[in-house]
Predict the structure of 3-deoxy-D-arabinoheptulosonate-7-phosphate synthase.
Amino acid sequence: MKMNKLLVEKNSGSDIKIKIGNKILGEKEKIVFSGPCAVENYENMKDIAVKLKKIGVHALRGGAFKPRTSPYDFQGLEKQGLEILKSVGKETGMIVSTEIMDTRDVEYALDYIDIIQIGSRNMYNYSLLKEVGRTKAPIILKRGMSASIKEWVYAAEYIMREGNENVILCERGIRTFETYTRNTLDLNAVAYIKEKYRLPVIVDPSHGTGLRELVHSMSLAGIMAGADGLIIESHINPEEAISDSRQTINMESMEKILKNVKILEKII
Ligand code: PEP
Ligand code: MN
C-alpha cells in the first residue's frame, strides 16, 4: 500500500512531546538521561543513581540485556538487571530506561522499567518495533549504525502506526570511513529531523564518539544542533565499567555538562 502521508511528518499533527517523570521532552528544557552502559550490581547502580539525581539528571539508563559484538563478552544481568533497575528507580524516584532486544521481554519488562530503548542493532527488527508499538511506553529508538535517515524514520513509523506515538529518536553515530572515533556523530541528522519531522530527538555522544574526552563538546554541539536532550554513559568509576569504559564519563564531567546545557538552554 502506498502511503502519501506519514505519521512522523509535520503535516500529520503537532510536534510530539513526551512526559518523562515531571518533565516534558520536546519543550524548552533539555532532558538528560544518564547511567552506566550495563547494570553491574545493585550497590553500584544505586550509588550512580543517587549521585546523578543529586546533580540534576532527569532519567536513569542502564543495560540489563547487552547486545555485545562478541558472544563471549558480558551479556548483562538480564532479569536480575531489571529487578535492580526497578529497586533503584523506586528508591531514588528516578524514571528508568533500558534496552529490550526480544519481543518476548517487552510486556513483562514494563513492570520494571518506564522507558524502552531499541538499540542500534535492532532498529531493523520490525517484529520488535511492532511489539513496542502496542505498548504506551516512551520508546527511545536509536539510529541503526548504517541506517539512512529515511530508514530510521520509517522504523519510527512502524512503532507509531501500531498506536504508540511516544517515540524519541536517538542519534548515536553512524559508521563511516573514519575509524579515529568509534562512530561519526551525525548532527546534520538532528537538525534535519527537527526541521522535517514531529518527533523529539536526543543525542548520544558516548556511542557517537567512543571517547570520553569528546563527550562534553559533542553534548553541547548536539544541543546547538537542536536536540531535545542527551543520553550519556556515566559511572562512579569509569575505568572499571564492565562495558564501554572508554566512552564513559565520571560524575564531575557529568555535572559540568549539565551546567553548560542549562547555559545553552538560556541562549537558545
Ligand atoms: C547502549 O546504549 O549501551 C547501546 C548498546 O547503544 P547502541 O544500541 O546505540 O549501540
Ligand atoms: Mn554502551
